[in-house]
Amino acid sequence: MLISELDTPALLIDLDIMERNLAKVAAYAKKHDLRLRPHTKTHKIPALARRQLELGAAGITVAKTTEAEVMLKAGPADLLIAYPVVGAAKLERLRALAEKTHVTVALDSLEAARMIADAGIRAGILVEVDVGLGRMGVTPDQATLLVEEIIRLPRVEWRGVAFYPGHVKDPNNEQEIAQLQTAILELVDRFVAMRIPAPIVSGGSTPLLWHSHRFDGLNEIRPGTYIFNDRNTWAGGACARQDCAATMMATVVSVQGGRMMIDGGSKTFSSDKLSTGGPGFGEIVGAPGALFHKMNEEHGYVDISKAERGFAVGDRVSVLMNHVCTAVNMQERIYGIRGDEVVETWVVEGRGKLQ
Fold it and tell me: Are 122 and 176 contained in the same domain?
């Protein structure tokens, strides 16, 4: 099938770029002796998780138990649920998962760990530590106390610590990187002093991906966005423009003076703005000066008053999205392309798996 035969909006993945991204990160992890356990939140497709495993990933990461059920199709020998599993229904899903593969749960409270133990589920535990984001995670002081309590619980096994440095958006900010280096090293040293060194120190993000080897003590990374990259990854300096594999193809449905509408709005694109503070919801590829500045559910508003080209109803445009992960989650299917051809069609099996 030709790309021109697809209906719009359609999320396209340049397979040459995606495959290069996958191979590059796999090689980096191998070179620096880092376990790669990629987060599948970006692609949500078992076939792509399988490709990551085939390239040497030690396992995969998900956020929710329903996502984990979908990703079992990839055949992971090791599966991390990087989110506390709280509630009876989720615990039952966790039990079923633990009977099929090696499961670890990241959490930050004794209550959440005790729920797993009391349910009789054999699972690993990573204690989540807050290294600056202020989202989830205990302090380093609390981490050692929490680990001492978890070790006493039956059936569950403490396997290490996890952190997410999502507050560091600029990989070239040496001050923030130095602070993170100190925080990780001090955390690892705490467990060494307790004579219970952490087997797994799991962290990292796509923005800091290529700096992972600089963090002494870190031995596992969980990047997600790197498989496709997006405008945020590029704007933040974590990848080059030519490393962005995903674009949304849309059709121009209205042109009125200096304004045009495309057939994708908030039900198609992420509402995230650029983390660097730039304008718009995405770049209109090949149209410098065009500004995708507003969305309704089905309408994308593009200011073309300063665009360096003209547009007509029926034209197709490509949009480099600010945040690809949430955009993928709104698609039923995405398409792998080479040149002008669609050579892969994937059902987004993990979309909407929020429980």
Answer: yes
Residue type, 345: T
pLDDT digits (tens, 9 = 90+) for 47-87: 999 999 999 999 999 999 999 999 999 999 999 999 999 99
pLDDT value at position 37? 97
Does residue 119 form part of some domain?
A: yes
301 and 176 in a common domain = no
Under 8 Å between Cβ of 53 and 76: yes
Which residues of the chain are modeled with pLDDT < 70? none
Structure-token pair, residue 330 = 């709104």
> Coil, strand, or helix at residue 258?
coil
And the tokens for 320? 């480099």
Q: Tell me the Ramachandran region of residue 316: left when phi exceeds 0, alpha when psi lies from -120 to 50, beta otherwise.
A: beta
Taking the C-alpha atoms of residue 48 and residue 54, their distance in angstroms, rounded to an integer, is 10
Which tokens is 331 given? 């698609």
28: closest CA among 239, 263, 251?
A: 239
| Count of CB atoms situated within 10 Å of the CB of 151 | 12
Does one domain contain both 68 and 181?
yes
Give SS3 for 315. coil
Does the predicted TM-score (pTM) go above 0.70? yes
Residues recorded for the chain:
355
Q: What does the alpha-carbon distance between residue 257 and residue 304 come to, in Å, rounded to a whole number?
A: 8
Phi, psi angle pair for 312, to nearest 5°:
-135, 155
